Amino acid sequence: NGPGGNGLGANSQAAIDIEIQPPSLTSGVMKIGIVAWSAYNPTETVMIVIDSNISWERDGDLLVTDNCNGDDVLPNQSCNAIISIVNTGNFEDTYEINVEATSWLRAELSRHTTVLSKDETQEAATLTLTVEGMVPAFSHGYATITLKLISGEILGSETIELRVAPFVNWELQSVESTTDSKDNVSVAFTMRNLGNGEDGLQVSLHVDMNVEHGFIPPEQAEHGSVTGAPRYFEIDQIPPGVNFTFRAWMHIPRNTEANGTLTMTVEMQSTLKPDVTFINETEAVYLAEAFRPENLPEESWWLDLEIAVAEIWNEFNGLFFTILV
C-alpha cells in the first residue's frame, strides 16, 4: 500500500498485505519467506521469514423450527421440529445432535450426526415428538435439543415446549329400564369417562306426550329447576375412569281413547367437545282405558256356561229341526 509503480523516495516506506491460504489441515506450522530488492540493484536482496500457525476455529449455530407450540397434542399423536445447523467455524466439521425429553414424550431423531463445510447451513434432522399413552390433559412436556461437536464440546441448545390436548371419550355403559305398579317408567343411565382429563355432561330430556316426566340428577348437578322435576342438567369435573349414573322417568298416560306408544328421548353431550353426543330413546306402550286389564269383564262360571250352550246350539240346531219335521 503505497506509491506503487512510482517507486519509493528516500527515507520513505510502503506496506504490503499478504494473504496466506493454508493447506487443508486442522493444525500445523508454516514458514513463509518474503524477499525484497531494488529495481536498480537486484543483486542486493533483503528477506524476512514469517512463521504462521494453522488454527482450527470450531463453532456452530443451532436453528429449530417446530409446530409443537402452536397446537396442543393429543395422546398418541405427534408434532415435528426441523433442526438446522450453521458451521460458523473456519473449517469443515462434524456436529452431533442430542435430545432429552420428558418421560412420556418419545423423541425420534432422523439423523444424529452431520458434516458441514465452512459457512454451510443445512437442515440436519427432523425431530418427531410423540405423546405416549393417556397422559393427563393440559400436561406440559419439554424436549431439549443440544448441538455438540463430535468431540463433545457443547455449542448451544434449544427447548421445545408442548401441551397435551384433552382427549374426549365417553362410553354409555348401561341403560336399565323398569316400570312400577303406578305406571312410572324409570331408566337408569351409566356413563364412563374414558378420556384423559376431567369433563362434564349436559343432559336434556324430551317426551313426545304431555305427561309428567323429569330427571333424578346427582346432587352435584346444576339444573335450576324449582319444581323438583328438572328436564335438563349439567355436571362438571367428572374425573377420567369414573362412572356416572343418573335416572330419567315418565308417567304412562291414563284415560286415553286409543292405544299408543310413548317415547322418552335423553340426549347426553360432552362439555369439552359438544359434538360427542349420545341419544337414547325409551318406548312404553300404553292402553286405552277400555282395554286396561282392570276394565275388562271378569270371567265367571255362569258366563262360561252361557258360551258353551251357545256353541252347542250353533252346532246342533239344524239336527233338532230335522227330527221335528
Attribute tags:
1 helix; 4-stranded antiparallel β-sheet; 325 residues; rod-shaped; mainly beta
Description:
This protein is 7% helix and 50% strand. With 325 residues, the protein is mostly beta strands. The strands form five sheets. The chain has a four-stranded antiparallel beta sheet with strand order 3-4-8-6, with no helix packed on it. The protein has a four-stranded antiparallel beta sheet with strand order 7-5-9-10, with no helix packed on it. A hairpin with a 6-residue loop joins strand 17 and strand 18. The longest helix is centred in the last third of the chain and has 24 residues. The C terminus is likely disordered.
Strand order of the largest sheet: 3-4-8-6
Q: Which sequence of SSEs, written as H and E, runs from N to C? A: EEEEEEEEEEEEEEEEEEH
| Morphology call | rod-shaped
Percent helix: under 10%
Unreliable stretches (pLDDT < 50, length at least 5) are: 320-325
Q: Output the number of helix runs.
A: 1
Give the strand content.
over 45%
Instruction: Please give the radius of gyration in angstroms.
Output: 46 Å
SS-based structural class? mainly beta
Question: What gap, in angstroms, lies between the N and C termini?
Answer: 163 Å
Described by strand count, sense and barrel closure, the largest sheet is: 4 strands, antiparallel
Mean of pLDDT: 86
Total beta strand runs: 18
